[in-house]
Amino acid sequence: MTQHVMVLGGGVIGLSCAFELKRRGFAVTVLEMGKCGGQASGAAAGMLAPYSENVEEPDPFFRLCLQSLLLYPEWQLAVKEASGLDFEYSATGSLYVMYHEADMLAMKSRKLWQDEHDAASELLDSAELRKLEPFIAPEAIGALRYPGESHVYAPGYVKALEEACRRTGVSIRDGLERIDITRWRDGVEVQAASTGETYRGDTLVVSNGAWAGLMESVFGMAIPIYPIRGQICAYETPDMPVRHMVFCSQGYVVGKRNGTLVCGASEDIAGFETTVTRRGIARLESWNGKLFPFLGGMRPFHEWAGLRPATQDGFPLLGRLSVSDSVLFAAGHYRNGILLSPATAAVVADLLEERVAPGLPLQAFNPERFSL
Ligand SMILES: Cc1cc2nc3c(=O)[nH]c(=O)nc-3n(C[C@H](O)[C@H](O)[C@H](O)COP(=O)(O)OP(=O)(O)OC[C@H]3O[C@@H](n4cnc5c(N)ncnc54)[C@H](O)[C@@H]3O)c2cc1C
Question: Of 3.30.470.20, 3.10.20.310, 3.30.460.80, 3.50.50.60, which CATH number belongs to 4-82+154-224+313-371?
Answer without folding.
Answer: 3.50.50.60
